[in-house]
TrEMBL record:
<comment type="similarity">
    <text>Belongs to the AHA1 family.</text>
</comment>
<dbReference type="InterPro" id="IPR013538">
    <property type="entry name" value="ASHA1/2-like_C"/>
</dbReference>
<dbReference type="Pfam" id="PF08327">
    <property type="entry name" value="AHSA1"/>
</dbReference>
<dbReference type="InterPro" id="IPR023393">
    <property type="entry name" value="START-like_dom_sf"/>
</dbReference>
<feature type="domain" description="Activator of Hsp90 ATPase homologue 1/2-like C-terminal">
    <location>
        <begin position="28"/>
        <end position="159"/>
    </location>
</feature>
<protein>
    <submittedName>
        <fullName>SRPBCC domain-containing protein</fullName>
    </submittedName>
</protein>
Length: 166
């Protein structure tokens, strides 16, 4: 396992934007699948002890992923993601907002931009998260930062497991 992988997490409060760059010791196709297939997303995209459960996902422009992060006592925190742009294996964008169980959005939301590239078997993922509201970003930032770092560690562990199977 490569321990020299880049991980940068920068918050620009004035721009209401979070910039995340993370490298993974796995091929582009596997990392892309981990971000775009619900059965893989559910294995890493919630910070422990929460777990993710996708109710439905249609990965195409205009499609949606409706999922919940579920606590150990069964409480669900729902979110809806709408895919606004997709370039296979290199880029996709989503609009993300929390919601209730009936998909009624809690606005404002955020815009997520994902870019993928691979060099020498290392896949780099650049994620930009723009928040419509500075207040929303401030409210979420502490929990989001710790939680998102945990989920990326979950992904790293999953990729190791999946790489050993292939």
């Amino acid at each position: 396992m490569n321990s020299n992988l880049l991980f940068d997490f920068t918050v620009d409060k004035a721009a209401k934007t979070v910039f995340i760059t993370r490298e993974f010791d796995a091929g582009l196709s596997l990392v892309w699948d981990a971000f775009t297939k619900p059965e893989l997303l559910d294995q890493w995209s919630a910070p422990a002890p929460m777990r993710a459960k996708t109710k439905y996902m249609n990965f195409e422009v205009g499609g949606k992923r409706f999922y919940a992060m579920i606590s150990p006592d069964g409480q669900a925190r729902w979110a809806l993601q709408r895919y606004t742009s997709i370039t296979p294996k290199t880029h996709f964008q989503i609009y993300n907002a929390f919601s209730d169980k009936d998909e009624n959005l809690e606005l404002p939301g955020s815009e997520w931009d994902y870019n993928f590239s691979e060099q020498d078997g290392i896949t780099k993922v650049n994620i930009t998260v723009f928040n419509e509201s500075f207040e929303r970003m401030e409210k979420l930032l502490d929990g989001f930062t710790a939680g998102f770092k945990m989920t990326l560690k979950n992904l790293e562990d999953l990729l190791v497991t999946l790489s050993q199977k292939s």
